[in-house]
Specification:
The complex is a heterodimer of chains A (about 180) and B (about 450). With about 180 residues, chain A is an alpha/beta fold. Chain A is built from 6 helices and 8 strands. Helix content of chain A is about 25%, strand content about 30%. The longest helix of chain A has 11 residues, at about 120-130. The chains are: A alpha/beta (about 180), B mainly alpha (about 450). The interface of A and B includes residues 116, 129, 143, 183 and 184 of A.
């Protein structure tokens, strides 16, 4: 990763949101939007916000995470990451990206690590059913969700997966049209 | 995109396996095997092959056809091959059982059913080894559980072929000649056991246990240097012992070295699995993990007993006890404990996969009643331990050879233990059948939302 000089940092603490069960993504993206030229974001969270890395990388932010005493996380999102290098910093582009077609940014994120099979599969399928056709879900699993793939195919969703040291990153694009609910294999 | 479907054949494998297991234990409880008949008696061999081929091999092949794709993230070449393997192995087993009984009755040429059945089993085993091995080979470098399974499959290819040679020596000694038959019984028979119980069963079970326990207890599957070393010692040691076992004389030293390496490897593996239990992120142990620990303890006891028997120079005398411990404590114990997890899991995926997210579906845990299944596991393991202890008593007192009062008493305990073991296994089997038959009313179940994790 290229060395990024930290200029000004704004701090956003979403720990109370997370503890209260509120989804902090909106606040984070809003804070990022309000950053000035060359400004970075210092985010405080109760867990390492892995799905966020990809989103902010695509907007040109590199990250540095460290665990604080007491188990919370401090993550610095620093500007100046070349877009072309974003994938490299993340250890490669998502599988299938080279095929040319660009997918929209994910609208939903699921961190399925720490869940016993088949719960990751259930959460992904349930979340997909709540999304609009064409929207993208990003999920991080401990391992390749082997039994999920045929189900995604049967439902007409597209998937790209990438194995990284901290998990298998999946991007799933909801199929173009909602299929009949009573479909059977 | 790698994809794994629930294999059409998996449940049929499991059904054949469980039926063989129950039948073998009924056969034992009926007193048709050692210690009431000689070790080499045809009726003893019927029970042994019902257990090793009908139960354990079929169970493991069924599980591997399902889990090799999971381990490697690659689909199997052919679904039909899984059906052929099951047919060849189960059909071959029936022929073999008939052949054993015919040999015992001196009914030539019916005895030829034994080598013919063996050929059928060999064909099925080679087909499976090729099919599964090709999938594993395409996924190199293999993760650790995959390497255990690959090594187990190499031994799988050896066991039935050597078995056919032994079967010919039993069924048609005139064809093999006394010299070849003598060599086969002296050298080949122990190596048939070593390749079967040690290579094929134990290596495969070690890999599958590592994979399933890591997966369901949420523990790291990468086991680092120690895990690699355990595998290299166990698999390499078994291979060395097997190869040099043919030699005799000059080969005694490498054979002993191989045995020692395999024992050290198994001990390291067990220590690493104890660490894996400690690293798990799911703190509550489900039935499969709780009773897998008992099976792993039995493996530890087996390794210890093998070392002690070897040091005392009495491995041959204690062989029936050692075989009973490895078959019922370690292998069958692990098999039963994993079935109670994977049968509901596969049933659930098969039944509710297409409905997920569209309608509320039950949780996989709702398919099995752990509280009802648990006592049967206690019965099974307690009975298996009692049976092994009775067998050890019989060997120690010489009761199996010349039954006195103590021998008769121990023999009675052994049979009662076999019966209790049968009951325990049947109880677990009934729970599995219930899982397959259960159709919880989908709409009546509480909805499981994405947020609703336990």
């Amino acid at each position: 990763m290229r060395e990024v000089a930290a200029r000004t940092l704004r701090t956003l603490d979403v720990r109370s949101d997370l503890r209260a069960g509120r989804e902090p993504l909106g606040r984070i993206l809003e804070a990022v939007r309000q950053l000035g030229e060359g400004e970075g974001l210092r985010l405080l969270a109760t867990f390492e916000p892995l799905p966020l890395y990809r989103v902010l990388e695509s907007r040109g932010f590199a990250h540095r995470a460290r665990r604080l005493e007491g188990g919370d996380w401090e993550v610095l999102f620093l500007p100046g990451l070349d877009r072309a290098e974003g994938g490299e910093a993340a250890g490669g582009r998502p599988a299938g990206e080279a095929e040319g077609e660009a997918w929209p940014e994910p609208v939903r994120f699921l961190d399925n690590r720490g869940l016993e099979p088949p719960e990751p599969m259930m959460r992904i399928l349930e979340t997909l059913e709540q999304m609009e056709p064409g929207q993208v879900l990003e999920a991080v699993n401990e391992r390749e969700p082997q039994f999920l793939y045929p189900e995604l195919q049967a439902r007409g969703h597209a998937i790209r997966s990438e194995r990284r040291p901290d998990g298998v990153y999946l991007r799933i694009r909801r199929g173009p049209a909602p299929e009949p609910a009573a479909e059977e294999r | 995109m790698p994809a794994t479907r629930v294999s059409r054949w998996g449940m049929r494998y499991f059904a054949v396996a469980l039926a063989s297991f129950l039948l073998a234990q009924a056969w034992m409880a009926a007193g048709l095997t050692w210690p009431f008949r000689p070790l080499g008696a045809s009726t003893t061999l019927v029970a042994v092959h019902l257990l090793t081929l009908g139960w354990l091999s079929t169970l493991m092949l069924g599980a591997l056809h399902q889990f090799v794709p999971v381990i490697t993230a690659r689909p199997l070449g052919s679904e039909r091959a899984a059906g052929w393997t099951l047919g060849l192995v189960a059909g071959g087993l029936l022929l073999m059982l008939a052949g054993f009984l015919a040999c015992g009755a001196g009914a030539w040429p019916l005895a030829l059913a034994l080598p013919l059945g063996g050929l059928s089993v060999t064909a099925g085993a080679w087909l499976a080894a090729a099919q599964l091995g090709r999938t594993l080979a395409s996924a190199r470098p293999l993760p650790l559980p995959g390497r255990y399974v690959a090594a187990g499959l190499l031994f799988l290819a050896l066991v039935p072929a050597l078995g056919v040679a032994l079967a010919l020596a039993v069924a048609a000694p005139r064809w093999t000649g006394p010299a070849a038959a003598g060599f086969l019984f002296a050298r080949g028979l122990p190596l048939h056991l070593l390749a079967g119980l040690g290579g094929w069963f134990t290596l495969t079970a070690m890999g599958v246990a590592l994979k399933l326990l890591a997966m369901f207890m949420l523990a790291p599957e990468e086991r680092g240097r120690r895990g690699e070393l355990a595998f290299a010692l166990t698999a390499g040691g078994l291979a060395l012992a097997w190869l040099s076992g043919w030699g005799g004389g000059w080969a005694a030293a490498p054979e002993e070295l191989g045995q020692a390496a395999a024992a050290a490897g198994a001990a390291l593996y067990l220590a690493d699995l104890a660490r894996l239990y400690g690293q798990r992120r799911r703190k509550r142990l489900e039935l499969n993990a709780a009773f897998a620990a008992w099976a792993l303890a039995a493996l530890g006891l087996e390794v210890l007993a093998l070392v002690l028997a070897r040091l005392a120079g009495s491995t041959a005398a204690w062989a029936p006890v050692l075989v009973q411990l490895v078959l019922f404590g370690w292998l069958s114990g692990l098999g039963l404990s994993q079935m109670i997890k994977i049968v509901p899991f596969l049933t659930w995926i098969e039944r509710y996969g297409p409905l997920m997210g569209r309608t509320p579906v039950p949780r996989v845990q709702e398919l099995v009643d752990e509280g009802r299944a648990r006592p049967w596991f206690f019965v099974y393991f307690a009975a298996a331990a009692t049976g092994v202890a009775a067998a050890a008593g019989l060997v120690a007192t010489g009761g199996a050879a010349a039954p006195g009062v103590a021998g008769a008493l121990l023999g009675g305990v052994w049979r009662a233990a076999a019966l209790a073991q049968l009951l325990g296994a049947a109880g677990v089997g009934r729970e599995l059948l219930r899982v397959r038959r259960m159709r919880p009313a989908v709409a009546a179940t509480a909805p499981s939302t994405a947020a609703g994790r336990p």
